[in-house]
Design goal:
This protein has 346 residues and is an alpha/beta fold. Helices cover 41% and strands 19% of the residues. The protein is built from twelve helices and ten strands.
Length: 346
């Protein structure tokens, strides 16, 4: 009978600690990266707690800046908060067994089969077809608006980065396209950890500017997507609602699975302004001074009508629609992605 060293046998009966050794190692790596990068002034803020779920708070990312390492902490924190890992069975499925040969990865040994046969066998898996995910990010000037510690653009960039990390973690391909007044720069889908930095570089070097033409931009991008996949639209949807809805529905008519994240600043969602306020259109420069208390009720009713319009028009053809407030964590968005992805694989 072949022999496997006892030191490599799997441990049994141990429960996972609240923070695994792998997570502690990741946090130490983050500390070194911040120190090497000369960002020692943020180490205290970042390392105050060991719980990775705190990185789901966008205000934390706003203070220290997003990076692939922080994106990993956000995703690991999210996964740490789930009752069951959403990755099980997503990228591979069991095929058959073969006999163990020296040099095989011992984590694939079938210990149950060993108990029955007294022989070592390796479990073999077949990879499912990789999913392609296209992240379409709105970079029109209105995305630069923000009344808290983070703008809609920063929130959306952080979200796109975390989604891209989550996608590549599952061995799927992530791509990025920026849009606004016209179709913008595109990073084709890839499934490599280094690909995340290329996507981040595109976002960092192309901040929000110009007017909005969501409809024309999305139509042009749709025609350029030659292979079906999962499309994630991240936008404040500030444009003609009818035209915007039609352009998003066009993605679905091309057989893509679609998620729409409607990003709103808290002030846009709740209109919590007091006293006479001068409002300026960030795209046209037009100004209007009003008393918020006189129009608050009407504004909120119209905002509710707008969101209801998008929700009805999108969900009736199978598009997920999620409203995200920039002061809320990323849990809702990451969960929505996982739900849509699981349905797309069935």
């Amino acid at each position: 009978m072949s022999h496997v060293p006892s030191s490599t046998s799997p441990t049994r009966g141990k429960s996972a600690s609240p923070i695994s050794s792998a997570m502690r190692s990741l946090i130490r790596k983050l500390r070194r990266a911040l120190t090497d990068g000369g960002a020692t002034h943020v180490i205290t803020e970042v390392m105050r707690g060991g719980n990775p779920q705190r990185y789901l708070d966008p205000s934390v990312l706003a203070r220290v800046g997003i990076s692939p390492l922080l994106a990993k902490l956000v995703v690991e924190g999210f996964i740490n908060g789930l009752h069951q890992s959403p990755f099980h069975g997503f990228s591979v499925e069991f095929a058959d067994h073969r006999e163990y040969v020296p040099g095989d990865d011992l984590k694939y040994l079938d210990w149950h089969l060993f108990a029955r046969t007294d022989n070592y066998y390796i479990k073999r898996f077949e990879e499912e077809t990789n999913l392609r995910c296209y992240i379409l990010l709105d970079r029109s000037a209105s995305m630069a608006f923000g009344t808290g510690s983070i703008t809609k653009w920063d929130y959306s960039c952080f979200l796109a980065t975390c989604l891209a990390y989550l996608i590549t973690k599952q061995q799927d391909a992530a791509g990025l396209a920026l849009f606004g007044a016209r179709p913008g720069m595109i990073v084709p889908p890839r499934c490599r950890s280094t690909h995340l930095r290329q996507m981040m570089s595109l976002m960092i070097n192309n901040p929000p500017s110009g007017t909005t033409d969501v409809s024309a931009s999305l139509r042009a991008i749709t025609l350029g997507l030659k292979r079906r996949g999962l499309v994630v639209v991240i936008s404040d949807l500030i444009d003609d609602p009818e035209q915007t809805l039609r352009s998003i529905r066009l993605l679905r008519s091309h057989k893509h699975d679609v998620i729409v994240f409607h990003v709103q600043d808290d002030a846009e969602a709740n209109f919590g302004f007091d006293g006479a306020t001068l409002f300026q259109d960030m795209e046209t420069g037009e100004e209007l001074e009003i008393d918020p208390s006189a129009v608050r009720q009407t504004y909120l009713e119209r905002m509710q009508q707008l969101c209801a319009f998008y929700r009805k028009g999108l969900t009736e053809i199978g598009i997920d629609y999620e409203i995200l407030n920039t002061r809320e964590s990323y849990d809702q968005a990451l969960s929505a992605y996982l739900r849509r992805r699981k349905r797309s694989r069935k």
